[in-house]
Amino acid sequence: MVQKAKILLVDDRPENLLALEAILSALDQTLVRASSGEEALKALLTDDFAVILLDVQMPGMDGFETAAHIKRRERTRDIPIIFLTAINHGPHHTFRGYAAGAVDYISKPFDPWVLRAKVSVFVELYMKNCQLREQAALLRLQLEGGGGKAAAGGDKEPPGLLAELSARLAAVEEQAEALSKQLDDESADAAAVATAAHLERKLTGLRRALDALEPGTGSGPPSVTSQS
């Protein structure tokens, strides 16, 4: 079972954090507060997050500097960042947000429904990736077990486990396909579409590896990597 996704909310004003929690509570995910860039970076050392909502104007380390630190770390560089700002200095200011690695740049006051919809897309992508990693780990164990039996001249792995793996993978494939169609219909952010496409490619590779384990394929088990 995939646990709830964590969403990091970064803002130096408690009332803004409270407002974000009220907007995103309907997603039924784990909301984590950070009142500064330093506090956000500390939270990112130990926890995995589906998306980060980051205020631009903060005392000390501002949003742009915080994002730069996040993108420099291998562990956190792929976490989507949505910038929130109460100021708008025109296209140059917006471009700076995207250049810092943000997937979106939203000016306050914003539409709560729009923000919640954007966040929900990245939460869904995160959950699908978690499921995919779980299936890959199970398949890797299957391949390792099959290799050991082959070397010992034993029988192939029982078909029940292959059937269970295939069914689980099919469920993830169906959900990923539905999410991709939803993104196409809504003309979603390019970053979200690219992430969904990357997820589908990984699913395709995992399906091929699983199919190769089926009896009668005539080919040995392919290698399964954990590259992202």
Automatic annotation (TrEMBL):
Keywords: Coiled coil, Phosphoprotein. SUPFAM superfamilies: CheY-like (SSF52172). Residues 6-123 form the Response regulatory domain. Residues 162-189 form a coiled coil. Transmembrane segments: none annotated. The modification 4-aspartylphosphate is found at D55. PANTHER family: RESPONSE REGULATORY DOMAIN-CONTAINING PROTEIN, STRESS RESPONSE REGULATOR PROTEIN 1. This is Two-component system response regulator. It comes from Streptomyces galilaeus. The lineage of its organism: Bacteria, Bacillati, Actinomycetota, Actinomycetes, Kitasatosporales.
